[in-house]
Amino acid sequence: MAVESTYVMIKPDGVARGLVGEVISRFERKNLSLTKMRMLTIDEALATRHYAEHTERPFFPELLEFITSGPVVAMEWTGDDAIVQARALMGATNPVEALPGTIRGDFATIITENIVHGSDSAESAARELGIFFN
């Protein structure tokens, strides 16, 4: 196991539904450490930077509209294999495929509003943490 940091964001639907404490509790119970956190409303420029790999995809306008629609909670979590652990806690991106007991399996209803975002690799974690915390 390697100690690493990852980026996790509670999206506007998770914040609006009052799930911030629930999400944080699940990560803490998994023995990950919350090392940075901030609440913000993402503007279009920041959203475009964050989702740069999706700008040419047909769903990008909808993604942009959603992620800028309300406050998010940006977090850095650190611990043993934090990236893999965080992704397991979140569950599959599509809530229909997410297992019960995962955040998306328990709370998300549609793929475009699925409560949380998490880095999928060490490279994306470094990039996303840099965007939101530097």
Would you write up a description of this structure?
Helix content is 42%, strand content 21%. The radius of gyration is 14 Å and the shape is globular. The protein is α+β, with helices and mostly antiparallel strands and 134 residues long. It starts with a strand and ends with a helix. The model has no long low-confidence stretch (mean pLDDT 96). A four-stranded antiparallel β-sheet has the order 2-3-1-4, sandwiched between helices. It has seven helices and four strands, in the order E-H-H-E-H-H-E-H-H-E-H. It has a single domain, classed as Nucleoside diphosphate kinase-like domain (Alpha-Beta Plaits).
Core attributes:
42% helix, 134 residues, alpha+beta, Alpha-Beta Plaits, 21% strand, single chain, four-stranded antiparallel sheet, 4 strands
- Our measurement of the CA-to-CA distance between the termini, rounded to an integer number of angstroms, reads 27 Å
Treating each run of at least 4 consecutive H or I residues as one helix, how many helices?
7
Globular, elongated, flat, extended or rod-shaped: what is the shape? globular
CATH class: Alpha Beta
User: Which architecture would the CATH scheme give at its second level?
Assistant: 2-Layer Sandwich
Q: Percent of residues in beta strands?
A: 15-25%
Low-pLDDT ranges: none
Number of strands: 4
Arrangement of strands in the largest sheet: 2-3-1-4
CATH topology: Alpha-Beta Plaits
- Element pattern in H and E: EHHEHHEHHEH
Biggest sheet record: 4 strands, antiparallel
Q: Level of helix content?
A: 40-55%
Number of domains: 1
Radius of gyration: 14 Å
CATH superfamily heading = Nucleoside diphosphate kinase-like domain
Quick check: average pLDDT? 96
Alpha-beta classification: alpha+beta
